[in-house]
Amino acid sequence: MAARAFTSLPPWLRSGRVLIGLTIVAALAICALLAPQIAPHDPNEQNLLTTFLPPAWMQGGDPAYLLGTDSLGRDVLSRLIYGARVAMMVAVFASFGAMIVGATLAYIAGYFGGRVDALIGRAVDVWMSFPPVILSLILMVGLGIGLRNVILAIILVDWTRFCRVMRSEVLVIARKDYVAAARLLGFSHARTITSEIVPATVPLLITLLSLEMGVAVIVEALLSFVGMSVGPQTPAWGQMIADARQYIYDSPWGLILPILAIFLAVFGFNILGDGLRRTLDVRVTAQRT
Amino acid sequence: MDTLAARKLSVSAALAGRPVNVIDNLDFTLAPGRILGIVGESGAGKSMIGRTIAQLLPPLFSVSQGELMFDGQDLVTMAAEDRRELLGRDIAFVPQEPMSGLNPVLTIGRQIDEHLARLKVGGRRARFDRAIEMLEAVHLPRARELLSKYPHQLSGGMCQRVLIAMAFASRPKLLVADEPTTALDVTIQARIVQLIAEMQRQDGTSVVFITHDLRLAAQICDEILVLYAGRVAEYGPAREIFARPRHPYTRCLQLANPVMSGARRGLFTLPERMPGLAALSGLTGCAFASRCPVVKDDCRSVAPPPVEVGPAHRAACLHSELTATIAAPDLPAEAEPSAAAPLLTVNNLGKTFRVGRGFFRHESVEAVKNVNFDLADNEFVGIVGESGSGKSTVARMLCGLETTTSGTVALAGRDVSAGDAAARRHLRAYAQMVFQDPQSALNPRRRVGSIVTQSMEATGTGDRAARLARAQALLSEIGLPPEAALRFPPQLSGGQRQRVNIARALCAEPRILIADEIVSGLDVSVQAQLLNLLLRLRRQRGFAMLFISHDLSVVRYLCDKVLVMYRGEVVESGPTAEVFDNPQHAYTKALLAAVPPDDPSSAWSPSTEASDRDAATGNPL
Fold it and tell me: Which domain holds residue A96?
């Protein structure tokens, strides 16, 4: 019965990796969307009488604070749930933005080749020669803190990743005879790209996109760790790590839990991307059948 | 003792539940110093025999019965270590793709050295000397220099020679050559085949020569085994089989091949295709019955046993006496090329490529120079030449995929060589291109119906229903069922894909088709179907065609005029019959001599001059 339900799924879903990844990502998305409903406390509500509480199941824990409290007596669970909002917003918007910028340039470079390709290629080279963390920090200093600017900074740093990988794929497809045939039959350049080249690159796009989401979560955590992301009023996982760092010996949970949350989110995106790559890539599927 | 003998050998595939025999009851013997040709079309199971010898069967395939004796030992039941000892030492292989047979990141010298070390040729110095000896034995000049080169610096023919040298290094008892010349030019093919024969005579090696070319096999082999759907159709002395085939399939293959001498004759076309694995599983009776022109009722119910039809000549046919009654069809009267002003006039066409990267350093290569010709309405003009002769560049320039460096292309009275938007529009209205490789030419993500009506999509004519109707009309015109419109290209066979490729070009009603090697890589029977399709379409619709091919016999069958290209220049041109019967230029003569003659008993003397050119310059062309 279970086996039959499994095979009745569309082929791209028929993979353990995709299912695990989707479950994790969906759980995080629900946390982010319904944070006010799910969270037991206000994430910024301080209670200086109950600071450094361990999780409820430990000795000295309080059932009202399931995962304990931090140095200001704020509920860790609620902060984690609200922190998923920032993480998911960044993951989705930054990676889509980076994809749109990077892939568009990749289509242009790979399809037209020649000077255009050389120009875009050199731009990517120069861009990638900046250390990504430093570049994003500089951008944040310039743009100022705030969710929108975090997303913008990540797009500006990470579009090169898409451009590099996509360009070589586009290059291969653009040399196919069916692309030449489309031109000979009277398709314009734009039409040839959208109707003949883009569909062939969709599997790679989806894969890169899901991997990029994991990267975006990490970069946001990094930025909020050094206080260069969203403001202190908005709970974010990196910020929680930074706060708990000083009290690591007294209250290790405050550090471990947000790290686990980041780990889970990145793992979810990566395994989803890997699973999608395996099920969507014709070259891999062809070997199996 | 026989070098290789198969007794009741069957290889079965466990696909989709029940096992199907992809090789069924194979029986043959190969005596020392003889050459056995295994002939068949793709899917007949020829390569499976080479794989069985090496015991490198694909997953789910296994030997289900019988034995394959090499020198008195059964290769099937032999322990893996013993077989490893034999392979590469007593049994050598020459692969189909010379480039993929060599490791691209190691030098030729290193690869030969490794092979010799495995053969326990002692000492670095001794191996080096031996390597040079080996390369000289296969007539590779400047062997010492060659040892430090990488495979990509060599031409395909040279790589194949290196592989042959390595194969013969151990003086093997058996050589398995799986289509060793398919990927090579016709002039090189002749040299490689002769080289194998020469080395084989020196060492007294037995050879299994796997090929799809019956004429070539008849020329060089002692015995021939014709395979059809994994079954032996006919097995016997090569000349005998070629002169008096006793299985209808052998006869049909022979008649599907255009002739090189004598009067042009029609091509016999077999309907449909060889049964696939699924069709074979439930088969009773003869596997060829569904396509056989002389099929009788009992053929469908009784599997034909091999019958002795002559000295050492067996045919698996219940009615082998009917084979001789199969005759090639008559040539239908062809539309005469119109005598009016030519549709296309090419004048002094030239193309120079800049090679080498960097801003300051680059060389120019003249890929095409000074090409002149006319194409009249309803006329088929062939361009022949080996790879690198510039024939594809001419095609790409004519349809605007490549800019021209010099010269003019007048199409219906208008110069289109400028390549601007107006010229492109004009060009599109008159000429369409059919690409060589249907796998690359058809977008695997589009349905066939949408592919063939792509030109309507480009101009925005017709709605969905109109396009589907047009697609179905086109498909029936090229001989595909209307349901094919809803399928995707990977679901079609190679021949069907090439038909779709042609249909797409015809959709815009062009007056000229530019066809670049559109039948190369297809099986003989599929090639015959396509050639006859092109002739029928010309009778029905009327169009001119520029047909680029390396296969001279195909051009002889199809084209009214022919241009011979050599190193970017047209060295000879004229009416096909004239050029082929009375070649003037040395290169044309060499090209014609490289084709195995129709009659295997007449001498085949390909000139060595033209083919050694690539070895001498060392240029991978």
Answer: 38-288
Q: What is the pLDDT of residue A282?
A: 56
Confidence of residue B620 (pLDDT cuts 50, 70, 90): very low
Q: Is residue B207 part of a domain?
A: no
Residue found by looking up tokens 């050694």 in the block: B612
Residue-wise pLDDT for A108-146, tens only, equals 999 998 899 999 999 999 999 988 888 888 998 898 888
Q: Indicate the pLDDT class of residue A8, thresholds 50, 70 and 90.
A: low
> With contacts defined as CB-CB under 8 Å, which chain B residues touch A121?
none
Q: Give the CATH number of the domain where residue A128 resides.
A: 1.10.3720.10
> Does residue A2 lie within any of the structural domains?
no
Q: Taking chain A, what is the end-to-end CA distance rounded to the nearest angstrom? A: 24
Q: Which domain holds residue B153?
A: 108-163
Judge contact between A273 and A204, C-beta under 8 A: no
- The span from the CA of A261 to the CA of A272, in Å, is 17
Task: Tally the domains of chain A.
Answer: 1
- Name the domain count of chain B: 2
Best of A176, A178, A189, A193 to mutate (most B CBs within 10 Å, chain B)? A178
Going by the DSSP 8-state scheme, the letter that residue B597 receives in this structure is P
Residue B121 in domain: yes
- Residues in A touching B445 (Cβ below 8 Å): 199-200
ipTM (interface predicted TM):
0.80
Quick: pLDDT tens for A9-63. 676 677 888 899 999 999 999 999 998 999 888 888 888 888 888 888 888 888 8
Within a domain: residue B479? yes
For residues B208 and B176, the answer to whether their CB atoms sit within 8 Å is yes
Report if residue A77 sits inside a domain.
yes
Instruction: Please give the structure tokens belonging to residue A231.
Output: 């403001």
Alpha carbon distance B606, B591 (integer Å): 8
Cβ-contact B289, B222 below 8 angstroms: no
In chain A, residues with a C-beta closer than 8 Å to the C-beta of B428 are 184-186
Distance from CA of B1 to the nearest CA of A (A): 42
- Residue A18 is assigned to a structural domain of this protein: no
Q: What is the CATH number of the domain that holds B349?
A: 3.40.50.300
Residue reference for tokens 């569904």? B290
Q: Across the interface, do B435 and A200 touch by the CB < 8 Å criterion?
A: no
Q: Locate tokens 């009309």: which residue? A: B473
Q: How far apart are CA A260 and CA A237, in angstroms?
A: 10
In DSSP terms, B406 is beta-bridged to: B350
Q: Is residue B316 part of a domain?
A: no
Determine the residue type at B161.
R
| Residue entry with tokens 């005579």 | B201
Confidence of residue B112 (pLDDT cuts 50, 70, 90): very high
Cβ-based interface (< 8 Å): residues of A facing B: 176-178, 180-187, 191, 196, 199-200, 282
Residue A236's DSSP bridge partners are none
A contact test, residue of B443, B497, B507 with most A CBs within 10 A: B443
What is the Cα–Cα distance from B135 to B169, expressed in whole angstroms?
10
Q: What is the pTM of this model?
A: 0.84
**Which of B440, B397, B442, B434 is CA-nearest to residue B515?**
B434
Residues of chain A in contact with residue B433, where contact means CB-CB under 8 angstroms, are 180-181, 184
Q: Which of B122, B261, B110 is nearest to B577 (CA)?
A: B261
